[in-house]
Design brief:
Pathway: Pyrimidine metabolism; UMP biosynthesis via de novo pathway; (S)-dihydroorotate from bicarbonate: step 3/3. This protein is an alpha/beta fold. 29% of the residues lie in helices and 22% in strands. The protein has one domain: Alpha-Beta Barrel (TIM Barrel), CATH 3.20.20.140. The strands form four sheets. Strands 1, 2, 3, 4, 5, 16, 17 and 18 form an eight-stranded mixed sheet that branches. A five-stranded parallel sheet has the order 9-10-13-14-15. A three-stranded parallel sheet has the order 6-7-8. Strand 1 and strand 2 form a beta hairpin. Bound molecules: zinc ion. The site of zinc ion (ZN) has 5 residues, from loops.
Length: 452
């Protein structure tokens, strides 16, 4: 059966601004009709004719599936942490229907063959898997990968995520090459010369714990440098390069991005839910944040920051400086995280908690309208990553679009229990954390991939 009727829900489609009761008919992977005259029964008759499965969406929001622009699926090479199959199962449980896979696999996804492997349906993905292959060969920061060939094979951008592209001339060349293809360079903004041996945010908490800290300038200086490169390229080559700044965590970097945008430069950025949910005090052990002292489930890069930086991130989401929410889902096995804080790898899982944490913080605690929070997770990533132009008609609930849909109860309050996770790994700071909004159904390519 290839037809589904989503009946009785409220459709929120940030792309069109639509926010009203409607039935949605899906057929062969495409949204066939959105009917706002739900009483007419016209769509019911049509659905019956098509022998469509009817999903009861009463009391629920019907929204585009979440597009997560920053996900580590760990395959190939680190499949004890996650596989494309398990990672995308976690995705659909969180309402995520498209993930953008990062290239720090083993080996690094820096060739067409590896890109095709990651995108292959043989990996049994439950969600749509797009990919950003490496910006430089082996993500070593030197020679560029073959951008034209990778773009042809489906790359939606280029990144050395986990590491920055550090050398000025390499970053400039990368921005230039990507601009010719209309694709972004996604930058992990960290001057690694300033973070050697550091395992958390630089500041009083790090002093207290005797841990070496990462200064905020390690992030902001790279963002500022990259913005200067954008200006240089626009001046010299008359191209308009696109810089996407990943997981921004500091007021200083956000100020640079805000300023660059006001000057018309093509800069976009993302913020991760954990950077607006927790502060670095968690690492000292903070019952209010659900953490133990030296809790490695609160270790990631960029690190959790001070209250002031967290507030700046939230303010930047509210004022529109932040373009999208992305999780930086980064699974690690128990034995890898269950070591001394300084030795533990960076990263936490996030696909299942992205919606619930974002709605709680932004919608409930800061009064951001539901449609605006959803925009940051659906229509905005589709638009900012040019996905429609690249042939992926995702991030909208409109006739003719891909039938990637999330149905959720926006009022449901629940507690995340990591024992229920679909991910292979359990390294999350959100275990036991309050969530707002619970996914009921997730459709990918017109098929139900998750049912609560
Ligand atoms: Zn990163």
């Amino acid at each position: 059966m290839s037809a589904i009727l989503l009946r009785g829900g409220r459709v929120i489609d940030p792309a069109s601004g639509c926010n009203d009761f409607a039935d949605v008919l899906v057929e062969n992977g495409i949204i066939r009709e959105v009917d706002f005259t739900t009483q007419s029964g016209e769509l019911d008759a049509l659905a019956k004719n098509m022998r469509a499965e009817v999903l009861d969406c009463t009391g629920c929001i019907v929204a585009p599936g979440i597009i997560d622009a920053h996900v580590h699926l760990r395959e190939p090479g680190q499949t004890h942490k996650e596989t494309i199959a398990t990672g995308t199962q976690a995705a659909v449980a969180g309402g995520v229907t498209t993930v953008v896979a990062m290239p720090n696999t083993t080996p690094v996804t820096d060739s067409v063959a590896l890109l095709e492997f990651v995108q292959s349906v043989q990996r049994d993905p439950s969600a749509r898997v797009l990919a950003m292959p490496a910006a430089t060969v082996g993500s070593m920061g030197g020679e560029l990968t073959d951008y034209a060939a990778l773009a042809e094979a489906g790359a939606v951008g280029f990144t050395d995520d986990g590491k920055p592209v550090l050398a000025d001339e390499v970053m400039k060349k990368a921005l230039l090459e990507a601009a010719r293809l209309g694709l972004p360079i996604s930058q992990h903004a960290e001057d690694t010369r300033m973070t050697v041996g550091a395992s958390m945010n630089f500041g009083p908490v790090a002093f207290r714990l005797g841990l070496r800290g990462m200064p905020i300038e390690a992030e902001s200086s790279i963002v500022e440098r990259d913005i200067r490169l954008l200006e240089e390229i626009e001046r010299e080559a008359r191209l308009r390069p696109h810089l996407h700044v990943q997981h921004v965590s500091t007021a200083k970097a956000l100020a640079a991005i805000r300023d660059a945008k006001s000057r018309g430069l093509h800069v976009t950025c993302e913020v991760a839910p954990h950077h607006i949910a927790f502060t670095d005090e968690a690492i000292a052990g903070d019952p209010a944040q659900g953490s133990r002292r030296y809790d490695t489930h609160f270790k990631m890069n960029p690190p959790l920051r001070s209250r002031a930086e967290v507030d700046a991130c939230i303010a930047a989401v509210l004022d529109g400086t932040v373009d999208i929410i992305a999780t930086d889902h980064a699974p690690h096995a128990h034995h890898e995280k269950n070591v001394e804080f300084e030795r533990a790898p960076n990263g936490i899982t996030g696909l299942e908690t992205s919606l619930g944490a974002s709605l709680r913080i932004l919608n409930r605690e800061h009064g951001m309208p539901l449609i605006d929070v959803l925009a940051l997770m659906t229509s905005a990533p589709a638009e900012k990553l040019h996905l429609r132009r690249l042939g992926h008609d995702v991030g909208r609930i409109q006739t003719g679009a891909f039938a990637d849909v999330m149905v959720f109860d926006a009022a449901a309050e629940w507690t995340y229990d990591v024992r229920m996770t679909r991910s292979k790994s359990r390294n999350t700071p959100f275990d036991g954390a309050p969530m707002l909004g619970k996914v009921k159904f997730t459709l990918v390519k017109g098929e139900v991939k998750y049912r609560a």
